[in-house]
Amino acid sequence: MKTWGQLEEIQPTVLKMLKNSIQKDRLAHAYLFEGMRGTGKKEISVLLAKSIFCSDPTEGYIPCEQCHNCRRINSGNHPDIHLIEPDGLSIKKDQIRMLQEEFSKTAVESKQKVYMIVHADRMTVNAANSLLKFLEEPSSQTVAILLTEQAQKILPTILSRCQAIQFRPLSSDNLIEKLIEHGVDQRKAPLIAQLTNNLDEGLNLNNDEWFAQGQKIVVKLYEMLQKDSLQALVALQENWFSHFKEKDQVDRGLDLLLLIFKDLLYIQLGKNNQVVFLSEIDRLEQFALQSSGRRLADQMTAILDAKRKLHANMNPQLLMEQLVLKLQEGSSFV
Ligand SMILES: [Zn+2]
Fold first, then answer.
1. Nearest-CA neighbor of 145 among 168, 162, 121?
2. Distance 3 CA to ligand 1 centre (A)
3. CA of 71 to the centre of ligand 1 (A)
4. Radius of gyration of the chain (CA)
5. What are the helix and strand counts (H, E) for the chain?
6. How far is CA 73 from the centre of its chain?
C-alpha cells in the first residue's frame, strides 16, 4: 500500500483537491476517477476511503495506517466499503442491486459508507440505469467512486452526477517503476518509457517481437553510419525498408534512431544516467568519443526534419536515403 506522500508524487493535483475537500468537509457524493491504467486510480480510491474512516488521521486527512479501520481497509475487509468489479466482461445489474440492498441497511459500524466501481464503463445498460437511480438519491453519508480508463463510454446521465477527476499520465520515472513492477527488464524499461506514457502500450512494446527486432536494425544502421554512407545505404536496403514499412512504423524507427543520438549527447555531457539504450551503452560510449556535441545536435535536427517530411507524406524510401546522406555530412570518415 502506497502512502499519501508516495501517491502525491504520482498525482499531485488529485490529492491536493481531495485534501481540500476532506479538510473542508466538502466531499462529493460521487466521483469519477478518469485516467489510463497504472495512474493510481484504485490506490487513491483506497487512500480516500482510509482518510474517511481513519480514527486518527494526521492533520485531519492523512490516514494513520495503524488504526483498526486503516488496517481493515488495507486488508480489504472493512464492512462499510464495497468494491464492485466486472463479473467476466461486464458489471451486471444484479451487482448494483446487491449494492443497493446492502446500502439500504444502516452502515454496519458508522454512518459512513463508501463504494467503488472499477471499470465503471463496463456496466451494462441495465446496471447503469440502476446505478443512476441510486446516484439520484444521494445519502449524505455515502461516497461513490467510479473508476474508468474510458470516460467517453459512460452514460452522460451518470457523468453529470459525478465530479470528474482527471488522472494525469505517468511521468517517465513513474512509468519505468511500473514497468519494472510488471516484470519488464530494468535495462529495457527506460527506452520504452521514452516512447509512450501508457502502461498498457509499454507492456505491449516489451512483448513485441517486431519492436525488439526494430531496435537491432536501428542500432545496425547507426553502426554503418559510423563507417560510410555506402554501407549505411546498403543497411537501409538489406534491413530497414523491409522492417519499417508503414508510415507509423517508419516513425517509430526514426524515434529509436533519434534516441540513439540523444543518448550519445547525454554521454558527452556526462549524464550517463539519462541513457535509455542501456543494452548498447558500452558501444555508445565508444561512439560518443568520435563525435562532437555540435554535430550530434545537427544530426538530431536532421532526424526531426525527416519525421516532419514523413508526416507531410514524403516517400519513406527517398526520405531515409536523404537522411542517411545528411547524417553522414561532416563525418570524419568521409
Ligand atoms: Zn487510521
1. 162
2. 12
3. 7
4. 26
5. 17, 5
6. 26
Distance 124 CA to ligand 1 centre (A): 36
What 3-state DSSP class applies to 33?
strand
Amino acid in position 282: D
Q: What is the pLDDT of residue 243?
A: 97
Burial of 156 from C-beta contacts in 10 A (0-12 / 13-18 / 19+): exposed
Question: Distance from the CA of 48 to the center of ligand 1, in angstroms?
Answer: 11
Residue 314, helix vs strand vs coil = coil
Measuring CA to CA, which residue among 184, 202, 276 is closest to residue 36?
A: 202
- 145: enclosing H helix or E strand: strand 142-148
Spacing, Cα 236 to ligand 1 middle (Å): 62
Q: For residue 30, report the phi and psi dihedrals to the nearest 5 degrees.
A: -145, 130
Which residue intervals of 182-208 are DSSP H helices?
189-195, 199-206
Ranges of the chain with pLDDT below 70: 106-109, 330-334
- 320 alpha carbon to ligand 1 midpoint, in Å? 60
Q: Residue 20 Cα, ligand 1 centroid: separation in angstroms?
A: 19
Task: Compute the distance from residue 55 Cα to the ligand 1 centre, in Å.
Answer: 5
CB 70 within 8 A of CB 64: yes
CA atoms within 13 A on the CB side of 112: 15
* Four-point Cα dihedral 194, 195, 197, 198, nearest 10: -140
Residue 137: per-residue pLDDT: 78
